[in-house]
Structure to design on (251 residues):
């Protein structure tokens, strides 16, 4: 198989993918903006050829809601073709083809680039990670009340389970679009918010807020969920217990 390159290998998901691959005995190169000796900004592509030369597989975890993912994918796919990389594994999001959110549209556009490339490919879509849900709730909890989108549920998944699945896919051949991976529970945002408040010791009134627009309607309709693929096992409550312990004093 040769060396496996992990882009975004120091990020939330990429570092777990890297750890899992190395534990499985693979030689791994981490590519990110600040990871020597392969410090590469995929958006300009400088140094990318050296990073992928001799690699058999690339796991593409690097992504940014601030933009540049399509340009980065072009650079990566071109470098992979020049280096003769046989397999690119791409992590995407459940609902990118159903929810008209700008970042989701970008992820879908990258999927299309991967599918049209000359490199063998695998695409895995997952639901949101537990820590992203907590970051959203932490931001909302800065207010005197905790507002959540009315009528919206989520299906958070454990990031280490996603990393294990990506490592498994990287160790196999190109498989195309594989089945989605979702967390074990679909829960209303009000319930997720109350669980977060209990675990963090914060006191806030949870206020469901009706929103408007096609993106909100798509979330209300469950376009970002995969209840038929609830194959993850780590629950949101278990994640909160690991992160906050038995619960912080109320504040």
């Amino acid at each position: 198989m040769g060396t496996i390159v992990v882009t975004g290998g120091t990020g939330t998901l990429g570092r777990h993918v890297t750890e899992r691959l190395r534990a499985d005995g693979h030689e791994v190169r981490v590519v990110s903006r600040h990871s020597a000796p392969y410090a590469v900004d995929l958006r300009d592509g400088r140094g990318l050829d050296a990073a992928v030369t001799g690699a058999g597989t690339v796991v593409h975890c690097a992504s940014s809601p601030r933009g540049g993912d399509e340009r980065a994918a072009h650079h990566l796919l071109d470098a992979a073709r020049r280096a003769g990389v046989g397999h690119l594994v791409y992590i995407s999001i459940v609902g990118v083809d159903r929810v008209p959110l700008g970042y989701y549209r970008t992820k879908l556009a990258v999927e299309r680039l991967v599918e049209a490339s000359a490199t063998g490919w695998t695409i895995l879509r997952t639901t949101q990670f537990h820590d992203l849900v907590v970051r959203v709730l932490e931001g909302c909890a800065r207010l005197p009340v905790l507002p959540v989108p009315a009528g919206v549920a989520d299906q958070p998944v454990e990031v280490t389970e996603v990393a294990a699945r990506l490592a498994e896919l990287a160790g196999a051949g190109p498989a195309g679009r594989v089945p989605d991976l979702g967390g074990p529970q679909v829960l209303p945002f009000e319930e997720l918010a109350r669980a977060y408040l209990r675990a963090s010791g914060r006191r806030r009134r949870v206020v469901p807020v009706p929103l408007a627009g096609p993106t909100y309607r798509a979330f209300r309709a469950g376009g970002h969920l995969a209840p038929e693929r609830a194959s993850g096992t780590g629950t949101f409550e278990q994640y909160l217990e690991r992160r906050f312990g038995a619960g912080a004093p109320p504040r």
Observations:
- The CA atoms of residues 30 and 36 lie 8 Å apart.
- The chain has one domain: 3-244.
- The first strand starts at residue 3 and ends at 7.
